[in-house]
Each structure stands twice: as C-alpha cells, then as structure tokens.
Amino acid sequence: MHSLEQERITEEAGLIAKSQTFADDERATKDQRAPYGRSFGHRIRSLIWLVLPWAISAVLLVVLIWDLTIRTTSKDPMQRLYSPVEREIEFETRRFYRSRGDDKSPYQGWPSDEIDQLWKNSYVRGLNTYVTAEEASLLPEKTLRVPVPGRENEFMVVLDDVIRQSWYPKRYGRGMYHPNGTLDYCQWLHYDHCLDQIRQALMCAADTSVVFFEWSKQSNASRPRVDNLHTCRSFDKIKDWAFDRDIGEYHSHRHVVPSEDGQFTIQRTTHSDHGDASECFAT
C-alpha cells in the first residue's frame, strides 16, 4: 500500500512539474514574441511620424501649385483681376516733380504744339487696343470684337484722356458752353464723367508713398514736399504694349455680328439723337 501511494504521489508531482514546465515554456514563448511585437509596433509608429511631415508638406505644395495655377501670372500684387498687359508690368522708383517753380514737368505750361504732341504721344496711339480671342476669354467682363475687316477675331480694350484740353476751350474747342452762353450739357457731362473716372482711379490705386514736410524759410511755415519718391508701374512698358496692339482706324458705329455660318459680319449703324435723357449715349 505504501509503495502504491508513493508511486501515485510521485506521478502527480511529475504531472505538476510537467504542467509547470509547459506553463513556463508558454510564458517564455510569449516573452520571446513580445519584444518582436513591441519592436514592430514601434517601427510602424516611427515610420508614421517620419512620413507624416513629408506627406503634409506634399499636400501643402500641391495646394500651393494649384493656387498659383488658377491665379494669373501678374507681376503686380494688386492685380487680382486678369489684364492682358499684366505680364509686361514692371515697377520702378520715380521722384515726382514739384510741378511749380523751376521743377515743372515737360507736360506743363501754356498750350503749345510741342506740349500738345507730348500729350498725344502718351495716349492717342494705343487709345483703342486689341486683345486676342484667348486673352478676351480670360477677361473678367466681356468686350466687343474689333469692327475692322479681317480683325473680327480680336477684341477691344479702351484707354481714355481728355481733361487737359477742357481748360483751354478757345484752343481746342472743348468748352462747356454754346456760343449763345447756354450750357452744353453733353460736353459738361463728358468732363464730369472723366473727372469722376480719375477720382475712382486715384482712390483705387491709393498711392501710400509718404509726403514729408520741411520748414520753409520763404513762407515761414511747414510745407509738404511733393517731389518725393513713389513706387510706380512703368508707364513706358504699358504704353509700348498698347502701341503694339493699336487698332488704328476705328469707327464706334460699326458692330461685329456673328452670322449663321459661324462667320462674322460688320454692320454699320447711324448716330441717333435721343436728347439729354440718353446721357449723351454714354455706357
């Protein structure tokens, strides 16, 4: 009996030991696997943190490229709306004339043939300019086709200047009054229109160049010095662009009309007088 009991105890002890060995082996296996599991997860997290900044940078770069693509290629940061001349814009620093005394510009002075020609050289040629059909499609607002035979696929852009001549009605015949002394409403309206266009242009440009003051011994007072420095668009570059695209012969009563066959015809209209209510045909 004693021998059998001893064998049973020994067998149970062996089973317990064997079970413990299996448990130890399983824990050892898990312990051996655990470092590999932690190492793999750590590598994944490290990879994510390594790639994430580059991925964000790539997304931002794509957004930037897209933004630049849909924008115009204007060199002028103020020019948000497309203009066909924007590629020609250059900036320069210019000092203004005092426009009085010994510091007057060549454009000033009592009218003469020389001064008149100087003004005309600045705006008469290039007053009516054309753009291509592709450029016209990019304009923020629709314009008309050029009413010149052979140039119907070009479009018009107009520049304007008239104020100076209104100050000298006898020389230029641009007075605001009829010979009998009554107001020429249409002529007055023209000047009123031009002055307000200049006002709007000045307020739109809003030149923020600084006008400084200095003490004037002559007037014994502080006086502004208007002969200061300004950052300007190069007018010569813009003028050259306009000159190169000058329409030349232009008639405002000619109109380009598309025909049924996809071609274009130029129709001629006649001037009609609707009185002052028409605001003298201004648009």
UniProtKB/TrEMBL annotation:
Matching InterPro entries: UstYa-like
Family, as annotated: Belongs to the ustYa family.
Transmembrane feature ranges: 47-66
Keywords on record: Membrane, Transmembrane, Transmembrane helix
Stated name of the protein: Tat pathway signal sequence
Organism of origin: Aspergillus steynii IBT 23096
Pfam families assigned: UstYa
Pathway given in the UniProt record: Mycotoxin biosynthesis
Keyword Hydrolase: no
KW Transmembrane helix (keyword) present: yes
One GO term of the biological process aspect: mycotoxin biosynthetic process
